[in-house]
Specification:
With 842 residues, the chain is of the alpha+beta class. It has five domains: 1-29 and 783-842, no CATH class; 57-130, Immunoglobulins (Immunoglobulin-like); 170-345, Glycosyltransferase (Alpha/alpha barrel), CATH 1.50.10.100; 351-476, no CATH class; 511-745, Beta-galactosidase, Chain A, domain 5. The chain contains 18 helices and 31 strands. The strands form six sheets. Strands 13, 14, 15, 16, 17, 18, 19, 20, 21 and 22 form a ten-stranded antiparallel sheet that branches. Strands 1-31-30-27-26-25-24-23 form an eight-stranded antiparallel sheet, with no helix packed on it. It starts with a strand and ends in a 19-residue tail after the last strand. Residues 504-686 form the Heparinase II/III-like C-terminal domain. It is found in: Cell envelope. Residues 15-47 are annotated as: Disordered.
Length: 842
């Protein structure tokens, strides 16, 4: 989507060639919701550009009117027998082609089929286009998995078998041997017979069983097996009712995994009645969840608990029972379903190739175990590498940029503000990716976090078997800006490899909007320096949906964006944004977010309606919820390296509104109303941050350290700055943020009309809403230039002819050479119509 025209060095006398591309006309308005929470229309269709070739075929559950669904697809709209693939009818609402589709137009349809073979009429015909450039990722058929699957036990970690014996010989010399045996010893010393009901401690027992499984699998000491057998005896002696087994979403699978691991590891030692007891419980769990999952999960945008934890364990239950004659007829369709849904919708929803977590940076850690285990198992059994999916190929780099070593995360969503450094499971995931994908970013990350890696226990069995080394140098050509187009985020760093010098920015405007663990924060940003927060979303994630969460954490007022008449964005996939442009070089990094659709009314998702009612909160304008007359909210954000941030907001509404510009800090603001300036200081890290705002509309600063609703558990104070603008229908706001060490003086900003001189940077920003928006940035010591304008800029003494009058244009150095990048708006693949092509300069 980006292209650079290299022009030599900054002092080159080379003439600028004239562009031949005249730009691209933009398609019409995007639909009201870019991602449905529950699919309402079949996928793919003509207005869906594919994320992956082959794309899954998915039918809304409501359109399945029989017991099963059958699919047909062809490159001929007449579906001739010799050119058409027709699937075997299945209970679920998806179909994977398991082969690369040729470029061109494809046609598909579906029909419902009864268990007695009765066939209903075919649906209407849908079409879609496969392009040469669509990333290709093919998974093998289920028949391949079934043919190669192991028939012996233990099998859960069969992907480690080829190095297991060597690991056993060397286990005592492994640096994590003491951690392995230490956790197992704790499990050995726990007497679960004292519990009145062992199932009330299912999560604790699950952890003990895992530690004992790992120790026995590697060390082969009988005491670990005996303890596992003791735990099994206690569990089997206590009948568990359906009301307890299915009392919570994680409860059944927490119980099931203990039975699964004991059954797998001790299979040859268990008595028939013990096996039967385990099998009967696993069949209860498998039947219950297959009935509720089949048809629903493939059509749900992302059911957190299913993908975090349950899907893996439900597959494992099927995996250890599939070859047992008494259960095969029931279990094999379930095994196939979970294999097919992973192929269709994993990883990261299936509509995200970026490597970051679409559901919030704070919640990727809860998914890591499944993200490691399932592709490892599938790759081993099918002899096809599931880690070559684009998401996995980008995941290591995404860890580096969004959750950097020795730093807080720069990302967004529930829990993303927690911790002063990455979690140990993220570090362990980097180690895994470095080994399996030879990814240099992952290798550097794991090496930077090696102490955290060794503290992790989820990957311990893997690490103690797979001991190979990997490269630990950060690639020399690491860019300063990464644009995550599918997820709708941007990450920018000034000194990525040096956290004590690094200034980092995370920016979000996402088509995934505000869902479960994402929040209502389109066009918001987080700013960090030296690994700590300077300005960040506020509030504390202590509860998923209590009053504090709803009013002072998830709400737009808690984020560095805007309110319209005091109203924020809904907790809904309808309140979406989009990063439409992003580019960067050595001196300037830039992105543009469009949150014009984000302020779309109240939250009508039944989950949130119920949560509001439970918290005693009404969705009224007084509480910050409701419709707004907003028609445009474009936010341009530039980092002028190393430590100056420029934000240019274009705001429009169909009537005069009050604009509240928001900023949140862990330290108190020191406003200077006469200079439209506010200062914060970090005395621990030794720096201060100055914010200045400019607009033709008058405004006043106010600040508070109070939440609308305080957290249930007392927590450190946070400061909330609001710039409140006089009511107007149109507004332009220029914000300049400067970070300086305590030993240095913050450069002055000199304003002359719409021109602002800031150190070596010249910033020209049209602030009058009656004139076309324009933002031009130049540097007097190098040739870097940014231009958002209708005019053609002069670059190195020559006029550069724009291809589009409203493009964003950057002339900057990258990899030792200067070049031009020009962009028009990027339309996300989820809504981009067939035939649309985003163009920049060749």
């Amino acid at each position: 989507m980006l292209a650079c025209l290299f022009l030599g060095t900054a002092c080159s006398d080379d003439a600028l060639p004239e562009p031949t591309d005249t730009g691209t006309e933009q398609p019409g308005e995007s639909p009201d919701a870019l991602h449905d929470k529950t699919r309402e229309k079949p996928y793919p269709k003509a207005d869906n550009e594919l994320y992956i070739n082959p794309a899954p075929f998915i039918v809304p559950q409501a359109m399945k009117t029989g017991d099963k669904l059958q699919f047909a697809f062809s490159q001929s709209k007449d579906f001739p027998d010799t050119e058409t693939t027709v699937s075997t009818p299945r209970q679920w609402c998806m179909y994977n082609a398991h082969r690369t589709l040729k470029s061109g137009t494809w046609y598909w349809r579906f029909r419902s089929v009864g268990n007695d073979g009765t066939e209903q009429a075919w649906s209407e015909t849908y079409s879609f286009e496969v392009k040469d450039e669509t990333p290709k990722f093919v998974t093998p058929t289920f028949e391949t998995l079934l043919k190669n699957a192991p028939r012996t036990h233990p099998r859960l970690f069969c992907f480690l078998d080829n190095r297991l014996e060597q690991a056993r010989r060397n286990v005592k010399s492994h640096p994590e041997y003491k951690q392995l045996t230490g956790r197992a010893q704790t499990a050995l010393g726990t007497d679960y017979s004292l519990l009145p009901n062992p199932y009330d401690a299912a999560a604790q027992i699950k952890n003990s069983v895992q530690h004992l499984y790992q120790a026995y699998h590697l060390i082969q000491d009988k005491k670990y097996a005996d303890k596992l057998h003791e735990i099994l005896t206690i569990l089997l002696a206590y009948p568990v009712s359906d009301s307890q087994l299915f009392a919570s979403n994680f409860g059944a699978t927490d119980i099931a995994i203990s039975f699964i691991e004991i059954y797998d590891l001790l299979y040859n030692e268990l008595a028939p009645e013990e096996k039967l007891g385990i099998e009967e419980l696993l069949m209860r769990v498998s039947r219950y969840y297959f009935q509720s999952n089949c048809g629903r999960q493939e059509n749900h945008i992302f059911d957190n608990h299913f993908w975090q934890h349950n899907m893996r364990i439900l597959f494992q239950a099927c995996f250890i029972l599939y070859d047992k004659a008494a259960y095969a007829d029931e279990i094999l369709p379930m095994l196939e379903y979970y294999y097919e849904i992973w192929s269709a919708r994993a990883p990261a929803s299936g509509f995200n190739r970026d490597g970051i977590w679409h559901n919030g940076t704070g919640y990727i850690a809860t998914n890591i175990k499944t993200l490691y285990y399932i592709p490892s198992l599938f790759s081993h059994i099918t002899r096809s590498d599931f880690l070559k999916h684009p998401w996995y190929l980008n995941a290591g780099k995404a860890l580096v940029y969004t959750s950097p070593p020795h730093s807080k995360s720069i990302g967004f969503g529930d829990g993303s503000e927690s911790g002063e450094e990455p979690s140990r499971v993220l570090a362990a995931f980097a180690d895994f990716l470095a080994k399996e994908n030879a990814d240099p970013y992952s290798g550097w990350y794991a090496d930077q976090c090696k102490e955290l890696v060794q503290q992790d226990y989820e990957f311990r069995l893997y690490r103690m078997v797979r001991t190979q080394s990997y490269a630990t140098e950060l690639p020399s050509n690491t860019p300063k800006l990464i644009w995550y187009k599918d997820a709708g985020e941007v990450a920018i760093h000034t000194h990525l490899a040096n956290p004590e010098q690094d200034m980092a920015i995370g920016f979000r405007s996402s088509t995934f909007a505000s869902g479960s663990h994402t929040v209502a924060n389109q066009n918001s940003f987080n700013l960090l320096y030296k690994g700590v927060d300077v300005y960040r979303s506020s509030g504390y994630y202590q509860n998923f949906s209590d009053a504090h969460n709803l009013m002072s954490y998830r709400h737009t007022r808690a984020h560095n964006t805007i309110l319209v008449n005091g109203i924020g964005q809904p907790y809904s996939l309808k309140g979406y944004g989009n990063v439409t442009r992003a580019m960067g070089g050595d001196h300037i990094s830039y992105c543009l977010g469009d949150a014009s659709h984000a302020y779309s009314g109240i939250s009508d998702d039944p989950m949130w309606v119920t949560a509001f009612a439970a918290a005693g909160i009404t969705q009224t304008p007084e509480n910050g919820f409701g419709k707004t007359p907003l028609t445009k909210y474009l936010r341009h954000l530039l980092l002028l390296h190393p430590y100056t941030v420029v934000i240019y907001d274009e705001l429009e509404a169909s009537e005069a509104v009050r604009w509240d510009w928001l900023l949140h800090s862990p330290t108190q603001f020191q406003p200077d109303k006469d200079r439209n300036m506010s200062v914060t200081e970090n005395t621990t890290k030794g720096f201060k941050t100055v914010v200045r705002q400019f607009s033709n509309s008058s405004f006043e600063y106010s600040q508070t350290d109070q939440f609308v609703v305080p957290p249930a558990t007392p927590a450190p104070a946070q400061w909330h700055l609001t710039a409140t603008y006089s009511p107007c229908a149109q507004n332009r706001i220029l914000t300049i943020i400067q970070i300086t060490p305590d030993s240095e003086q913050t450069p002055a900003i000199v304003r002359t009309g719409d021109s602002f001189q800031c150190d070596n940077w010249s910033i020209q920003a049209v602030l009058s809403p009656s004139q076309p928006a324009e933002l031009i940035v130049t540097n007097r010591t190098n040739s870097a230039l940014f231009s958002y304008s209708a005019d053609n800029p002069v670059i190195d003494g020559s006029m550069y002819l724009r291809k589009s009058p409203r493009s964003s244009l950057l002339y900057d150095q990258s990899n030792g050479r200067y070049g031009v990048t020009e962009q028009t708006d990027y339309i996300p693949a989820s809504t981009r119509a067939v035939g649309y092509e985003h163009k920049t300069n060749p």
